[in-house]
Design a protein that fits this description.
The protein is mostly helical. The chain has a domain of about 150 residues. About 75% of the residues lie in helices and about 0% in strands. The chain has 8 helices and no strands. The N and C termini lie close together (about 5 Å).
């Protein structure tokens, strides 16, 4: 028989995966709302990946619920669950690594994005961080308006590169760290499922042995 402790551990990982899926979807939807600063920092492909990842986690939780509800003798559904978890692991690793690689080139990436960005986006960032221009306040293509409306005040302000990069770096690092954290949940659920399969096979073997001996069965 599967012990209560193992069942509890397995259930904790399954619920944690459900929570991870809900968090991934919730943040992806929230960051997709109209917010020029967030939309400048986070690529829309990341938001789509977050929705896909959250959906995959919730689907895996449903499969896990179906698998654990099967009779003790049925283990192939749990085995199928583990294959689904492996696919989730690969997906999580790829998405987390792509975001991490973006952090390695964020200086040049955001500089390029800034100079082709719509003036409204530039003004929103300048208003948010109370700065003017990206690398310098004397840039010829700096978006005037909002916090940087007065040219005499602009010269006294600092550029946006440092405060913006601190925010962008923190945001991207938080995202890929959270994604890699989800990987730990998947590994835990995978190992717990392997233990569940082993215990079910063991219990079924003892049940068959006991039946051959004419007993009432251990399970």
């Amino acid at each position: 028989m599967v012990s209560k402790t193992l069942s509890a551990v397995w259930a904790c990982f399954a619920v944690a995966l459900l929570a991870a899926g809900c968090i991934s979807i919730a943040y992806s939807i929230n960051w997709a709302m109209p917010n020029m600063v967030i939309q400048f920092v986070i690529d829309r492909s990341f938001l789509k990946a977050g929705l896909a990842l959250g959906g995959a986690y919730i689907f895996t939780f449903v499969v896990a619920f179906v698998a654990v509800a099967q009779p003790t003798a049925v283990t192939f559904v749990l085995a199928g669950l583990n294959w689904v978890i492996i696919l989730d692991m690969l997906m999580t690793l790829v998405i987390g690594s792509v975001i991490w690689m973006h952090t390695l080139k964020e200086q040049s990436m955001y500089r390029e994005k800034w100079f082709v960005a719509d003036p409204d986006i530039q003004r929103a960032i300048q208003d948010e961080f109370r700065c003017c221009g990206y690398a310098s306040t004397t840039e010829s293509n700096m978006a005037m308006g909002g916090f940087c409306a007065d040219s005499t005040i602009v010269a006294q302000q600092s550029s946006c590169q440092q405060p913006f990069m601190l925010y962008a770096d923190w945001t991207l690092n938080t995202i890929f760290t959270a994604v890699y954290g989800f990987q730990a949940i998947l590994i835990g659920l995978f190992l717990a499922s392997c233990c569940m399969i082993n215990k079910r096979i063991e219990a079924e073997r003892f049940r068959k042995i006991d039946l051959k001996r004419g007993g009432g069965g251990f399970v």
